[in-house]
Every structure is written in C-alpha cells, then in structure tokens.
Amino acid sequence: MITADPKQVQQYRQRWLTRLREHRGHLDEPPGIVVEGVLNRMVGLTLEAVGCQAAIGARCVVDSPGSASIEAEVVGFADERLYLMPTGSLHGIRPNARVIPTDKVYEAPVGNALLGRVLDGAGRPLDGKGPLRVQERMPLSGRPINPLQRQPIDKPLDVGVRSINALLTVGRGQRMGLFAGSGVGKSVLLGMMTKFTTADVIVVGLIGERGREVKEFINNILGEEGMARSVVVAVPADHTPVMRMHGAAMATTIAEYFRDQGKHVLLLMDSLTRYAQAQREIALAIGEPPATKGYPPSVFARLPQLVERAGNADQGGGSITAFYTVLTEGDDQQDPIADAARAILDGHIVLSRELAESGQYPAIDVEASISRVMTEIVDKDHLRLVQRFRQMYSLYRQNQDLINVGAYTPGTDSRIDESIQLHPALLAFLSQDMRTSMSWQESRQCLQSLFANHEAEINAAHAGMHAMVNTGGMPS
Fold first, then answer.
1. How many CA atoms lie within 13 A of 381 on its CB side?
2. CA–centroid distance for 223 within its chain
3. What is the pTM for the complete model shown?
C-alpha cells in the first residue's frame, strides 16, 4: 500500500485552488456570443446584412470565400437589417458573405511619435517611415467639454499674415472658416499659416481633396521645417465616404490629445465641405430624405459635433485654434454648407475671385470677412484703426465705378477724396508675399503707420497751402 506524502498533497491542493481563483473571475462576465450574419444585398456602397446585431459605429468584418476580408462600419438599421458602409474596396465580395461583428470602434493612434508623420483615415502610415511607435489610442468620438468650463479666448494668435493679424485678429482657441471657390489661393494661405503661426503642434486634415495635392502640400507648402512639428491626416477623394469622415474625426482626435497635454494646437482642415458631402453620401444611401438642396438633416447635425470639439480646453491650459476651409460652389456664399458653417464658427475669412484675378494676394475680401472675438482680444485704439480702414476701403469700393469712368468730381465729398488718396496704401497693406511673414505686433504697427503717414501728408499739404496764401502765391 502506497501512502501519499501529506506535504505534497497540500501543495497539490493549493496549486489547484490558486488556479480556480484565477479563473473564477471569468465566470462573472462570460464572453458574449458572437452571432454572425449574412450579406444579402448591396446597392452602390451600401451593404445590407441580416442575422446579426451591432451598434451604430461598430466595426464588422465581411468575409467572402476566395477573397480578402474587408471592414465595414454600421451606419444604420431597419427591423432585422443592418446597413454597413465599407472602409475599403469591395472588389471580390459575393452574395451570402459572412458578416462578423467585432464589438470594436474605430480609434486614433496618439502620442508624440506622430509628429512628422502622414496617416490615412484608419491611422496607418502613408509616408514609408515604418510603423507608428505609439502605445495609446483614443476613440474617434472625442471627449465632451462642459461649455461653462471652457477657458475664455483672451489672447491673440499670430498667424504671420498681415491682413489677418491686423484686421481680422484671431484668438487662441478660436474656430475660423476660410470660405473660397476653387483656384483662389486657399491652400497657399493655409500653407502660410502652417509655417508662420506660433503653435506647438500643427495637425492638418486633407479630406476629400485631390491625391496630387497631398504630396504638393507636404513638400512645397509645409516643407521640412513645418513638417517637423506637424501631423498630416490625408484621405483623398477616391476613398470611401466613411474613411473621409474618419479622417476628419481622426485629425480632430489627435489635436484633442495634444491639447489635453497642455499644448497649443493649430488644426487646419481642408475641407469641411468634403466632410459634409461624405455624410450626405452615407445618409442618402441608407434612405434618409434630402432636405436642403440635396443635403439630409443629419449633415447639419454632424457639422457642429465636429467643430465644437475644437477650441480651448477645460483643463491643462491647452487650446485648439482651428481653420476650416469651406468650398463655395460657383462662389455662392449662400451655399447650404457655407451658410451653416458661418452660424457655428467664430468668424470667417472670405477669399474673392475678383481680387485674385486682379493680382491681389492673399485675396481676402475685408468687407465680407469678420472675426467675432476680435473685440475681446485687442484694445480700443486697434479697433478704431480697423474701423477706419474698413470705412475707407468700403467707401472706395462703393464708388469705384464712378471713379474709374471719371464721373466723380474731386472735392464733391471729402471722405471719398480721402478714400481715393488712401486706396493705393490700403491695397499695398492687404498684399503680402507668400514667403514673407509678419508678426502680430508688426502688423498692428504697419496699420498704425498707414494712417499716421497719411495724416502727415495732409498736414504738410495744408501747411503748404497756408504758406502760399500768406505769401500771396494764391488769390485770397
């Protein structure tokens, strides 16, 4: 008869008790059962699946025998049907393909290792510099901020462009729209602000634009110096609408990460219009009715959800100053997206095709542009100079036709005479070489000098006239 060693029995028992305790926690939260569905319909880019359930925004895998699997996002449902939109090519997908919910959402890689890198809408590197060495990820939905806890906008931001610094002063944490038609210089103006703006980190979202422009923007506009402190998210027009929307959300999420680290971030998104068009494609594809010029209501709900994520933080002292380009089709400033963007942004800069064709660069239409926080961040003397500039510039534009054809008689109106005398100096002030930067302080001094020099010329002219009268040079 063999007798077991009591000590060995005790060790054996203890070992099993330890293993049982380790696995007992798994019984409290058993893994959910993954129910696969079947792809039974495809219209355009919309996939319809039956037999499975998943939340809006969840990731699903569509697995078709004999072809590579693709990922798709749940964008809607009706009864027992799920509507999905792919994030990549649908080549090779067949009827009755397996649809497997993953219970995961799309996330953005974040970290200092992103600086100097170019990503696509899924967070994959496009620059051939190897994998991203980041450990942290954040959901694309972002972190909501209590509006009463946001830090106020109370400091001007130097963007390096004289006309914006002086006449449309941008505050740190402000959200501005850049409204322009095609070919009037908005990309070049964005490049100037990218290189010259005093920001710790620059995040650029190139959403829905031509693929050729991505490399041109990086090489010719950003350059090595600008790229060293920048993160570029590029999703050209040939990508699916879901990926274009992910690109805008990813650029915003990366900017939020750096803001929460206490950094001052410049977010440039080109363009907000392409983001809205991507949402329109998705909404119409799943059956949402169009409301305003072909745009469904969800488009106008998505725009503020994206834009409101920028701005000053509620903690850490960081900020996101955002510039969103808005493409005005046919130079129509009443385009639905342009009109909605004006209502939710803190100001807008309008680029004029007429001014661009006349050779003025940047072609900023001062009369149509405004910065809504300028009155809170500059002093009264600065505001007085801006008001006088606008009055003189607008007065000349209103009477330009009469002046050009010689129908205006000098001396009829002293204010119009003054605007005619000042007009060359006003145009020179608005023009700036794209390779030249001018600080905020220098821009203000330049504006002050413009009127000081004009008043000195007027005083000298008056003194000369009085001298001629006193010496008999003119009839009394």
1. 6
2. 20
3. 0.85
